[in-house]
Specification:
By secondary structure, the protein is α+β, with helices and mostly antiparallel strands. It contains 3 helices and 4 strands, in the order ααββββα. It has a domain of 39 residues. The protein starts with a helix and ends in a 5-residue tail after the last helix.
């Protein structure tokens, strides 16, 4: 019984020593700088292509005379002038 207790103590000490050695210098994570926070992308309105139904940001859509499209080819396919 005393050998079992001795083995448990040795395993416990080794476990504690290994745990501390892996946590010696954890990488410090810095909070985001104000300049980085300003670069964050704001949400944009999403629109659907009138030809295929693809959803895309409004700023990337191709505008026809009547509808919005995902590409100039789809605008021409529907016969919508620019």
């Amino acid at each position: 019984m005393k050998y079992l207790l001795l083995i448990a103590v040795v395993v416990g000490v080794l476990w504690l020593v290994r745990g501390r050695s892996s946590r010696v210098n954890p990488p410090a994570s810095k909070p985001p700088q104000p300049a980085q926070a300003a670069k964050a992308v704001s949400p944009q309105a999403m629109v659907a292509c009138a030809h295929c139904g693809l959803h895309l940001p409004r700023c990337e859509a191709v505008a026809g005379a009547q509808e919005l499209y995902c590409s100039d080819a789809h605008r021409r396919a529907r016969g919508d002038p620019p």
